Amino acid sequence: MSRTPFPHISEFNSFFRAFKLFASMRRHGLPATLVTYNTLLDACARTYNLTLAELTFQQLERSGIEPATRTFSILIHLSAKVGRMDEAFGWLRRMESAGLPPNDVTYSTIINACGKAGRLERAFELLAEMEARGLNPNVITYTSLIDACSKLGQPQRALAVFRLMVERGGEAAPNAITCHALFSALVLEGEVQLAREVLQQMDAVGLRPSAHSFTMLLSQAAQVGARGASAAALACLLRQLSQTYPSLIRRAEQDEARRNLETHPGHRLRHGDTLFLNNL
Asked: What is the pLDDT of residues 27-78, one digit of tens each?
């Protein structure tokens, strides 16, 4: 199970203010509305407090207020964020039982969560279900799938999703985050020619790769070594990119040099390395 993130102190402050105001409302006999409860649930989500969110939902039900799509979406999102996928699917079922069909935000949230939890097949099932309901996946939905495929060592599947995004365009068109997720996966798997295809697609729609993408290329080149087709393909790609994006390549080299020094602080620098680092 993934570790629950720790919220920023400002989120705790907002959380306490929300529940303090709610307690004041009750003391003064002011009725709570659906907006009130959704605000409280949102405060719980921002502080990763699933237990209090569930108690808040129970209080909402006891008050006779009907939950809305947003109510369930908050609970699904919170459950997914803290790695409680069974609870997330439970809220999804309750949502549908209440006659509230999931919207595109709900599906994107749970697809993303499935990907992070390694439940890739379930994520693709939800994507098909989403499309069957007439909902259009957007760039966030597809990027979540690409990221999941990448992390689970399925770059070819990630590339298929990317090609679908390019074909559909509009709100599904890939952005810089999409391209970086796919590019990283392909480079790490040694799929240099496919990584080149992604860069070409990026160039076609006016997206620039990041310095981090180039840093990964440099790292991969070092791992592959000086021999073999993969090494030759990487070298060719780096030469091409150094001509197209010289400033980003230089920044990537700087990042790689710093990383090597941090990893091997006792490393004895060559004369060329010293000159290079003096210009950082």
From this structure: 888 888 999 999 999 989 988 899 999 999 999 999 999 999 999 999 998 9
180 vs 162: CA distance, rounded Å: 11
pTM of the model: 0.66
DSSP for 49-93, written as a single string: -HHHHHHHHHHHHHTTPPP-HHHHHHHHHHHHHTT-HHHHHHHHH
Helices (H) and strands (E) counted in the chain, each on its own, are: 15, 0
Encode pLDDT of 66-118 as tens digits.
Answer: 999 999 999 998 998 888 999 999 999 999 999 998 888 888 888 888 887 88
Q: Is the dihedral of CA 33, 37, 38, 42 positive or negative?
A: positive
229, containing H or E segment: helix 228-244
Cβ atoms of 98 and 90 within 8 Å: the answer is: no
Residue found under tokens 């939890």: 117
Residues 59/52, Cβ–Cβ less than 8 Å: no
